[in-house]
Amino acid sequence: MLTGSTPTGNVRAASSQSGDTFGPQASAGGEAATIIFSENQPPDLSNRVSHLTAWTITPSRMGLIRRFTFPSFGTAWRFMSTVAEECKAKRHHPSWHNLYNQVTVEWTTHKPLGLSIKDVEMAEFCDRIAEENGLKVPTQSAGRTNSSTPASN
After folding, report:
1. By the 8 A CB rule, do 117 and 39 touch?
2. Residues 6+ apart with CB under 8 A from 111
3. d(Cα 40, Cα 149) in Å, to the nearest integer?
4. CB 3 within 8 A of CB 34
5. Which of 10, 47, 76, 126 could form a cystine bridge with 70, CB 3.0-4.6 A?
6. Tens digits of per-residue pLDDT, 32-41?
7. In whole angstroms, what is the distance from residue 3 CA to residue 120 CA?
8. Backbone phi, then psi, for 79, in 5-degree steps?
9. Bias category Polar residues: which stretches (predicted)?
10. Under a CB-based contact definition with an 8 Å cutoff, are residues 127 and 52 in contact?
């Protein structure tokens, strides 16, 4: 059994076999990871997180991480610039890293601590913008490979 928080911030136990765990990816040990949500989150947050299949739960269980691979440095930079503008508008910023055509993005909330609706909305935004900019196939999440179809331009 893993313990975690529901989107409303209440601690609960989750069994990896019962389907009660939240999140898009299993932890490195192969068991389902339970996300620790920030307090006072919308009740549908865990459902929205489950649709972020290209993202991985961070080791702290309080965030999401994904590595995007683009055809070129210029495309990766364009992606980062677009996301940066949205971050400025939303007043929510990631921890991220760029290495040539790869961009690794991590979303978590520091106040209140845990995964929040802001993180999920920005992860969804990143996915849309990455598809619009043309992901290189396959893309990599932190530690695993995904298939992704490139967006048509």
Report:
1. no
2. none
3. 36
4. yes
5. 76
6. 568 999 999 9
7. 21
8. -60, -50
9. 1-20
10. yes
How many CB atoms within 10 Å of residue 67?
Answer: 22
What are the sequence ranges of the domains in the chain? 64-146
The size of the chain, in residues, is 153
* DSSP collapsed to 3 states, 17-64: CCCCCCCCCECCCCCECCCCECCCCCCCHHHHHHCCCCCEECCCCCEE
Please, is 40 exposed, middle or buried when counting C-beta atoms within 10 Å of its C-beta (0-12, 13-18, 19+)?
exposed
Token pair listed for 93: 């910023």
Q: Find where tokens 């969804």 sit.
A: 124
Residue 88 contacts by C-beta under 8 Å, 6 or more apart in sequence? Answer: none
User: Would you say the C-alpha torsion 66, 102, 140, 79 has a positive or negative sign?
Assistant: positive
Quote the CA–CA distance of 126 and 28 in Å, as a whole number: 24
The greatest distance separating any two alpha carbons of the chain, rounded to the nearest whole angstrom, comes to: 46
Name the pTM for this structure.
Answer: 0.72
